[in-house]
DNA sequence: AACGCCACCAACCGCAAAACA
DNA sequence: GTGTTTTGCGGTTGGTGGCGT
């Protein structure tokens, strides 16, 4: 049975669920309508590369845009634009893969995907925390008010305790220490590095874990009958002293997380191909629309530049994107 | 004017998880 | 603990308007 079918009177042909949907997607006063800006497009593409079809998560970084609107915009505009450029809109990789083949680029792309999945699972956890926190703080506020002031309330009541930079703490650790692209080192102090090391150990001690991770497979199911909670417990055995400090960054929400961290600890930076690609995509599209000219060589992968530097730039851009975005993001 | 095609987007649908009784 | 209701989400559909023929 769907929501509202019994408990709310019908408004014309609309039931409660339909009314709620119309409110959240259309009538809510804090919804921005109209054309998406260049910045918004870039944000959507980058976040989609990270999160896949997690429209609600993406929407948290685009204040005043609904997940439905973003989803529609992606399906009607951005997806086609990607396809037109020979980019797989699901994987965000060139369809023929030639641009990424040969050197470490293919691996880099795979790593990025792993990381994206890793982060997306953590986003889910963060979102859950935020929801719980919101419920606690909502107190006696009636549901209508709570809903209509969602953005404001989440920013002022939920996120402050976590701090503005809480979001991508692990990524920050990677970028700030330069550990990205290097073998993990024992005794590293920050959470990202520590977890990298732990991930390796954990994997070796839990042979049931799979290293699957197909592109876009955001499922948080854990293979081999190991539950998320079990994995989490296992994880904290290795890091008891950090249990309170970085709990929200627990990475092993699925099997692929282990693999993703393991693989990134083994080698290479991922390359900043997503960012460059995004820029390329958008700029190319602009050029095409402006003068009908042809795009440049399309080597958005960054060629032979300094990978570590590129990576730093890439993740910094993501961090900037996330952190500069409305602290009103319900998740961050 | 009539028709077909296409793009856009609000709305619908089904499912899962959370909340509630 | 269990069943029911509510909420949130992502995929898909259908109505509408613009455009070309």
From TrEMBL:
It is found in: Nucleus. Transmembrane segments: none annotated. The keyword Nucleus applies. Residues 28-78 form the Myb-like domain. GO terms for molecular function: DNA binding. GO terms for biological process: cell morphogenesis; regulation of cutin biosynthetic process. Residues 288-309 are annotated as: Disordered. SUPFAM superfamilies: Homeodomain-like. The keyword Nucleus applies. GO terms for cellular component: nucleus. Residues 28-82 form the HTH myb-type domain. Keywords: Developmental protein, DNA-binding, Nucleus, Repeat, Transcription, Transcription regulation. InterPro entries: Homeodomain-like_sf (IPR009057), Myb_dom (IPR017930), Myb_TF_plants (IPR015495), SANT/Myb (IPR001005). Pfam families: Myb_DNA-binding (PF00249). This is Transcription factor. The lineage of its organism: Eukaryota, Viridiplantae, Streptophyta, Embryophyta, Tracheophyta.
């Amino acid at each position: 049975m769907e929501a509202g079918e019994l408990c709310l009177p019908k408004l014309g042909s609309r039931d409660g669920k339909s009314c709620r949907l119309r409110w959240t997607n259309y009538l809510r006063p804090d919804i921005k309508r109209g054309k998406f800006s260049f910045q918004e497009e870039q944000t959507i593409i980058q976040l989609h590369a990270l999160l896949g079809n997690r429209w609600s998560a993406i929407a948290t970084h685009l204040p005043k845009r609904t997940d439905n609107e973003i989803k529609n915009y992606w399906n009607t505009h951005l997806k086609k634009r990607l396809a037109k450029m020979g980019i797989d809109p699901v994987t965000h990789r060139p369809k023929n893969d030639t641009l990424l083949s040969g050197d470490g680029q293919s691996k880099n792309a795979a790593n990025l995907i792993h990381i994206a999945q890793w982060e997306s699972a953590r986003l889910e956890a963060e979102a859950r925390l935020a929801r719980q926190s919101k419920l606690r703080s909502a107190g006696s506020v009636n549901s209508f008010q709570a809903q209509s002031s969602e953005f404001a309330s989440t920013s002022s009541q939920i996120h402050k305790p976590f701090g503005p930079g809480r979001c991508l703490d692990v990524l920050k650790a990677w970028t700030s220490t330069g550990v990205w692209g290097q073998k993990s080192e024992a005794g590293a102090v920050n959470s990202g590095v520590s977890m990298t090391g732990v991930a390796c150990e954990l994997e070796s001690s839990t042979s049931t874990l799979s290293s699957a991770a197909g592109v876009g497979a955001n499922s948080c199911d854990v293979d081999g009958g190991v539950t998320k909670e079990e994995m989490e417990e296992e994880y904290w055995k290795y890091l008891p002293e950090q249990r309170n400090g970085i709990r929200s960054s627990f990475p092993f929400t699925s099997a692929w997380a282990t693999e993703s961290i393991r693989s990134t600890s083994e080698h290479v930076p991922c390359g900043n191909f997503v960012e460059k690609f995004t820029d390329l995509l958008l700029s190319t599209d602009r050029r095409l629309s402006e003068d009908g000219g042809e795009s440049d060589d399309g080597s958005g992968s960054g060629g032979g530049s300094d990978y570590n530097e590129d990576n730093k730039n890439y993740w910094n851009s993501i961090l900037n994107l996330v952190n500069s975005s409305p602290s009103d993001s319900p998740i961050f």
